[in-house]
Structures are given as structure tokens and as C-alpha cells.
Design brief:
single chain; about 400 residues; alpha/beta; 4-stranded mixed β-sheet
Length: about 400
Amino acid sequence: MKVKIQTETKTLKGNLKLTGSKSISNRLLILQALSGQMSPLNNLSNSDDTTVLLKAISSKESTVDVGIAGTAMRFLTAYLSIQESDCVLTGASRMKERPIKDLVDALSGLGAEIDYIEKEGYPPLNIKGKKLQGGDLSINADVSSQFISAILMISPYFEKGIRLRLKGEVLSRPYIEMTLNLMQQQGVGHVWEADTITILPGEYSDNVRDVESDWSSISYIFELAALSDSAEIRLKQVDKISVQGDQEGMNYFKLLGVDSSIENGELTLRKQVGFTRPDILEFDCTKTPDLAQTLAATTCALGIPMNIKGLKSLPIKETDRLMALKVELEKCGAEIHIINNEALEIIPGPDFSNKDFNFETYGDHRMALCLAPLALKANSITLNNPLVVNKSYKSYWNDLKELHFDVEVS
């Protein structure tokens, strides 16, 4: 299946309502499951990742298959380790290539019984759930923040709670802070001093009922505004004070020609009049890795050279995102350098307004989401596997149509 995106207008105007945050939805579902109170959540994400997790939590089967849902794999590994039952946790072929050893080692250090079924350090897993004592634990902080969040969320149900020491540089700190913030809203406090997070034994309540709109998804609307000639786009149900680190996109995209404001739960994006392209930009995405692809595609299309660092986690995502960006953006004439497998240097190519591009998505929703807006600068964009966006942003193609793009799926 393919999708072809074109547009005759470079002026974007419209009103959109995005689904709830995938990151918040998935965390709240785990907290609810632990509390035993599965009350309906308003604006719950309709992404495939959230649907998979909700189904898995409700499943009575002895084998749970999460497909390509990485968040579900990590959160469920921890969640199932304290459920007093046995389960095989597996996924798609790409999931079996994504390392999970640091999380399994950490849980095993707390007494969990988890065995590898195929390859050491990778799913599928055989999990024999039981009550864990908890206590002191150290974990490398430069691994996936989801490993840390997975442990934190189950820690109130340890006999001794947890004193979790984070060793080294903390990657994606805002996602850990999001987890702790939601835990606190659900009745479980914490103390984070220096490199140690302490959580006492306790139970979750059921206080949070509303899910914020997803700032990772909103970043692609920012990209559309940045690549337009003129834009005024309004998005509903957006919190001014957010637990999502990707709200930092408001500041990033101001440098790329997009002004934004939030009033009464509505986010308004406007293309700056007379925007002057900077000579070069530098971004550090250590705290916002999910914005890296959006920024890379945007600066490439705007013709702005960019250096972007803090990308250590990108090679182990749904695909090797650094290599995927290099291959696809070089089709546009850009020169892309991968530095130490954790940074990118982007030197844009010539104007490509009369060209047609065929892009691969690598089974990665964020590749499709960040490449489609290039239709504002190219003659047309064709993407393979358009349904991959369902992983996080199910209404994406319809939202492009709302903004008067011609979207043809074949």
C-alpha cells in the first residue's frame, strides 16, 4: 500500500482536534491496572500502541503479542513481573531485535523471574510473576527512559518500595518526570535527590480522568506550518501546562518561523510574516528525541543547515532512525552525516519544488509523519506503508485532508 500527497495551496488554515497523548495514555493504563480501577479515560489515545496495551492488560491468555508496540513491551515486562501468573510476552520480528536486557537485569535484581525464550537480551520473554521485595537498585540512566518508567510505576507495590539510583547521564529526563508526575496525581509521591529516586510502598487512586493531546503528534502540525507560505491552524484540548517534554517544540519551531500560543485550551500556530531563515541551527534533543526526525525533515526542506545532538536512543527505535533519515533525506539532495551514532549534521540540497519523491517508512510511524509535510515543498510525496501512522497518530491522513492536501491511498 502507498500514499501520494500533493497540495496546490501553500496557505494552511483550519481547526484540528488531536487524540490524547500516547505516552500519558499508556502510563495511566498501567497505573489504573495496578490500582484495579479501570475507569474510562477522556481523550484516551486511539493509537495502535495504546489499543495493544489496553488489550494486553485485559487479556487472560498465557501469551501476549504486542506486535511493534515498544512501550507496551517495556511496560508489560515490569507489570507482568508482579502479577502472580505466568505469561509469554512476545512481539513482531522488529521487536525481537530491540534490546531489553537492562530492564530484565534490573527486574531480576529485584527478584523477578524472567527468562529469554530465543535470543539472550531480547524478546520474547517468559515471565513468572510474583510479589517482589524491592529495595535498593541501580540502573544505567542512558538506556531507554521507558525501562526506568516501567520500574517506577510498579515500585509502590514492592514490599519495601524502591531506592532507584540512576547511573550516568539521564536520557529523556522529561519522560521520567512525566511518569513521576502522573504517579503523584494518582496518589503516590516520590523524592528525587541527586541521582536517586525513592518511592515508598503504596497504592494508586483513580484521580486522573483526562488525557492531554499528544505533543509529539502536534510537532507534525508545527512542521506543516513551518513549510507553508502562510498558516493559521488551531488545535483543541491542548494544556498550557503540560507533563509532556515535547511541548518544547513550541520553542524549537519559533526558530523555524512558527509563532504559537495557548489560550483556553486551544493552541494556535501562525507562520511568521517575513520569516528570515537562520544561517545554521543547533538543537540538543537529549530530552526530546521524538522531535528529532521532525526537526531534521523541516530544516532540510527549508534549506537551513542544522546540527542536532542527543540522539543516542534513535538507532534502537522502530528502525535505526539515524540511518533512515540519512537515506531518505539524501534523496532530496541533502548531505547527511551521522556522528558517533548519536548526532546528525544536515546540509540541505538545492530547491526541490518541481520534484517527486518516493520515500520508505521502514515500518516507523515517525518517518511517515515527518516526511509527508515535504509535499509543501515538492511536487508530490509518495510513501510506502501509510498505515504505519496508526501506531501513534491515526487521524493523520484525514487531518491533512482537512488542511486541503490531496491524499491518495492505493
